[in-house]
From TrEMBL:
Transmembrane segments: 12-38, 50-73, 101-121, 159-181, 201-219, 318-340, 360-384, 405-428, 448-470, 490-513, 533-552
Protein name, UniProt field: RING-type E3 ubiquitin transferase
Enzyme class label: transferase
EC numbers for this chain: 2.3.2.27
Boundaries of every E3 ubiquitin-protein ligase MARCHF6-like C-terminal domain copy: 390-563
Gene encoding the protein: MARCHF6
Length: 594
């Protein structure tokens, strides 16, 4: 009991234990009902047990497993942040709910990206190579049905195997690279990731900006997935030819296409060298990861299997392939942990000196520089076969496009977020945080960072809302993209109206509070009160007017609906006489009966 109370989650743990005891009780009652042949009671108890069983499995798969992954990631990365288990224990005692939620969130992100990588592998590898992994694109897959039909010991075995697989990957790609970095580059670690700062700029807002705006834009617009898919394909081809597993990894069709000239001249391969699926022993029932983890191992044989050529010493080659894969993952992890941070530190040291900077900023800066370098090299390699004239013409086009993009970025990503963040500061933050006897301080950089987040939220709500001019403009700009960017259209239809509205929202209250109110002859205290409270007051007035106008429109629609339901038959009004107007000389017609 003392250990349960020390966990700070005694209510949740007690509830889970209660459900487990309830499930065991239902199993016992179900068995007794089966012995005495109470069919209705047996059926009812079985349904209740299934509900409790599925609920517990969902909690374990979606709640407990990501939490274990998050804590294991944190434990394996302690040396990277110069932390200890004592620090994590103190953090947990100070804020247990926040700590558990953050670890669960990190675990969910890890599981999600692992599943995304598995889906990418399926696009490259031969169908049947990953037979032991659940195909998430299979339309016949139903996770709830598996939860119902499979026994508890199967789910427990899957859970243990999931923990072993994911934990081993964390050891391979996080713990071991950190040890090698500390051995080879002793001064590189630890990372500086303190969430507090003496500077007036809130680092947490900048971290939200990087995570919500910068990195998603990099992943969406930088062809990152295509590059990763190309790297995986190149590695697969190299490993296939080195270990004579090209047919096993990529399929016999691609092997025949690659060797078509050779096969035309020398066609001595016997047909019995290719093994069919029916000739191979059926794979054992696989254990694996549940669909809630995006990587469940499937039950039964492979789906969409393609035949392949089985070389000599096939098990030894598979072992060498796995070892080669582990070495590649280790090297890739080393590069990802060092190259972006090292590049970002070197670049930011030119204007910050030796001061410590949050590693999220250095990593983001280095990641962008690496992306731009790779993008530039790929573009030049694509242009080189076309000649010097085409390259010069392309450089001119891209220069003009970059200048247009910079102008649009200055307006849409610079001016509008700054005005929006300043307006939010005046309307919400300053009235709530700063008393009337103190002077509020405004930091444009922080207001801009918060304004970017607010602008992103407003744009998302606009795109999900009803059709109106702003949604149409945003959709048109997104459809044009960067290559076909229309500077005049963006300035005239998007930037100018939005900036005008924001400037009016900022300037009109200030003119009233600083120009009109002092001319009336009020006291200085009233002037300060007006200057500090006029922005939320006008927001309240505008909101009230909007609500009233919305309600008036709704009442009008309700009145028209009632009138049409009562008097409109088909498309003709019946039993309805319009009151004679002041200029009306036409007598009302007789009511029509239909």
């Amino acid at each position: 009991m003392f250990q349960v109370q020390a966990s700070h989650f005694e209510g949740l743990i007690t509830t889970i234990v209660g459900y487990i005891l309830l499930a065991m009780t239902l199993i016992l009652c179900h068995g007794l009902a089966a012995l005495v042949s109470f069919q209705r009671s047996r059926r009812l108890l079985g349904v209740c047990y299934i509900v409790v069983k599925v609920s517990l499995l969902v909690v374990v798969e979606i709640g407990v497993f990501p939490l274990i992954c998050g804590w294991w990631l944190d434990i394996c990365s302690l040396e990277m942040f110069d932390a200890s288990l004592k620090d994590r224990e103190m953090s947990f005692k100070s804020a247990p709910g926040t700590t558990m939620f953050l670890h669960w969130l990190v675990g969910m992100v890890y599981v999600f990206y692992f599943a995304s990588f598995i889906l990418l592998l399926r696009e490259v590898l031969r169908p049947g190579v990953l037979w032991f992994l659940r195909n998430l694109n299979d339309p016949d897959f139903n996770p709830v049905q598996e939860m119902i039909h499979l026994p508890i010991y199967r789910h427990l075995r899957r859970f243990i195997l999931s923990v072993v697989v994911f934990g081993s990957i964390v050891l391979l790609m996080l713990w071991l690279p950190i040890k090698l970095i500390k051995l080879l580059l002793p001064t590189f670690l630890p990372y500086n990731v303190m969430l507090y700062s003496d500077a007036p700029v809130s680092e947490l807002s900048l971290e939200l900006l990087l995570l919500q705006v910068v990195l998603p834009a990099l992943l969406e617009q930088g062809h990152t997935r295509q590059w990763l898919k190309g790297l995986v394909r190149a590695w697969t081809v190299s490993a296939g030819y080195l270990l004579d597993l090209h047919s096993y990894l990529l399929g016999e069709q691609e092997d025949n296409e690659a060797n078509q000239p050779v096969n035309n001249n020398n066609n001595n391969n016997p047909p019995h060298a290719h093994h069919n699926n029916n000739n191979n022993p059926a794979p054992a029932v696989g254990e694996g990861l549940h669909a809630a983890h995006q990587a469940i191992l499937q039950q039964g044989g492979p789906v969409g299997f393609q035949p392949y050529h089985r070389p000599l010493r096939f098990p030894l080659r598979i072992v060498l392939l796995i070892a080669f894969m582990c070495i590649t993952l280790l090297v890739a992890s080393l590069v990802c942990l060092t190259l972006p941070v090292f590049t970002g530190r070197w670049l930011m040291s030119f204007w910050t000196g030796n001061s410590k900077i949050h590693e999220l900023y250095t990593a983001a800066c280095g990641l962008y520089v690496c992306w731009l370098s790779i993008r530039g090299v790929t573009v030049l390699l694509a242009w080189m076969p076309q000649g010097r004239t085409v390259i010069v013409h392309k450089v001119q086009e891209w220069t003009l496009m970059i200048l247009k993009t910079l102008v649009v970025a200055l307006l849409v990503a610079g001016v509008i977020p700054l005005l929006l963040g300043l307006l939010f500061e005046l309307v919400i933050v300053a009235p709530l945080r700063v008393p009337l006897d103190q002077t509020p301080l405004f930091y444009p950089w922080q207001d801009w960072a918060l304004g970017v987040l607010h602008a992103k939220i407003i744009a998302a709500i606009t795109l999900m809302g009803p059709q109106w001019w702003l949604k149409t403009v945003i959709e048109q700009v997104y459809a044009n993209g960067i290559r076909n960017i229309d500077l005049q259209f963006i300035i005239r239809k998007l930037a100018a109206p939005v900036i005008s509205v924001l400037l009016l929202s900022l300037c009109v209250p200030y003119v009233i509070a600083a120009g009109v109110v002092p001319a009336v002859g009020v006291t200085p205290e009233m002037e300060i009160l007006m200057q500090r409270r006029i922005y939320p007051f006008l927001l309240m007035v505008v909101s009230l007017i909007g609500i009233l106008s919305f309600q008036i429109r709704q009442f009008k629609r309700l009145y028209e609906h009632i009138k049409n339901d009562k008097y409109l038959v088909g498309q003709r009004l019946v039993n309805y006489e319009r009151k004679a107007g002041r200029g009306s000389s036409i007598p009302p017609s007789n009511p029509v009966v239909e």
